[in-house]
Amino acid sequence: MTPEEVGRRVVALLAPVEATASVSGGQGYARATVDVPPASWADAVRAARDDAELDLDFLDWLSAVDELADGFDVVLHLWSVRHRHGLLLRTRVPRDTPVVASVVDLFPGAAWHERETHEMFGIDFAGHGELRPLLLPPEFEGHPLRKEFVLASRVAKPWPGAKEPGESEAGGGRRPVRPPGVPAPGEWGTTPTPAGAAGAGEGPRGGTPARPARERPARPAPGERPARPAAAERPARPTAGDAPERPASGEAGPGSGAALGADEAGPLGRPLPGERPTGPPRQEPEPGAAGES
């Protein structure tokens, strides 16, 4: 079935419930998308699973999208293993009372997905029975994936998008730009404060102020090099024609053992590096000594 046929089939199964069918983007990966009211959420999931033409028997994932003042969109993706087509089911819950029915009795694998969505967005799934923390510690306060939630790391560290490539911290550059949802410096603290550039919602409820950023030394501007020492301060280099002076004949050179004392010579009278070995004079045999026995 094509995405358009899948959407029309779901709408027909849910009649007279007001459901709206559309097709998502993604070209070859496009999916039929059906929006249903929160009261018909579980019925829509059951109809998509039990219908023989749809046979959407595999729950892929479940999550939510923060739509700010419009509430939260709960999104569920189902897939048919036999027919090889999918469906995106959506429902919108109000921001002040975000509650929707749980589908754990239809797809037991949805238990972890609903726990994570409850933890990150604060959406309650009626009938789940065990919405305990899944990823965050029990003492954590707030819902990190809500758009009004301010991440401390965003406040403590400079945002990479605050400067264009090639702009240094020393000079030039544009006025610092804050990421969406981060308040101005000095406004974020332990009490609810207005959000920053995005201007949506409130700041965090409680917490500790962020630590100030570390001061780093200014980087040299592009093209600048550290100053080199003056010519008088650098040691003179020997020219190509210069050569070390050799000692005159009969004089002891720097590598000669004669210029060293007895205790400065090599160990056990051995020659030093670069010195020719010397030994006792060669003794010639006396005439007639060869014939003596």
What does this structure look like?
The chain is of the alpha/beta class. The chain has four helices and seven strands; from the N terminus they run αββαββββαβα. A five-stranded mixed β-sheet has the order 1-2-5-4-3.
Largest sheet: 5 strands, mixed
Spatial order of strands in the largest sheet: 1-2-5-4-3
- As a whole number of angstroms, the C-alpha radius of gyration is 42 Å
Mean pLDDT over all positions: 76
Tell me the β content.
5-15%
SSE order, one letter for each helix or strand = HEEHEEEEHEH
Number of helices: 4
Q: How is the quaternary structure best described?
A: single chain
Percent helix range = 10-25%
Strand tally is 7
- Outline the low-pLDDT stretches: 190-210, 254-266
Structural class: alpha/beta
> Outline, from the CA principal axes?
elongated
For the terminal residues, how far apart are their CA atoms?
123 Å
